[in-house]
Amino acid sequence: MEKHQEIIEVLNELIEINISRLEGYQKATTDVFDEDLKVLFEGMVNESTLFENQIADFVISLGGEPAKDCTFVGKIHQIWIDFKAAVSANNRHAILSSCEFGDEQAILAYDAILEIDEVQKTPELQRFLSGQRQAIDESLKIIRSLLHATHNADAELETLRNQEN
């Protein structure tokens, strides 16, 4: 196990990131009113659950103990605190902005881990982590599209209100 300790530790960080992401999106699905966001967030819950399980299986195959909860302190934790606050306010733009930031940070974490020599020497690990990173990137593109549409709709409403005055 000592040989793989570094890789187990970084994989556990990814598990924690996915647990944090999962918890944030679970909160969102119960608190957000917009049906399109509920459906999107439910998909992200499923995605994060799958990723967490895949990484945990790999940690076990290396002889390690997978992380069981979100103990990752730092940016991801703060992201989801901000996210939960945005959801509580049910502000579509704020919710989507928090999602965007959270998934950007998750992608950065995946990118850093994919650069580690031990990961690069393990094609199976590199392949499935790259696939997970790509899926989060696809989710991020959807979030950005919705965020852009929300921003344009808000700007249009503001223009109409100004014309009325």
TrEMBL record:
NCBIfam families: PA2169 family four-helix-bundle protein (TIGR02284)
InterPro entries from the UniProt entry: CHP02284 (IPR011971), DUF2383 (IPR019052), Ferritin-like (IPR012347), Ferritin-like_SF (IPR009078)
Protein name: DUF2383 domain-containing protein
Stored Pfam families: DUF2383
DUF2383 domain boundaries: 7-115
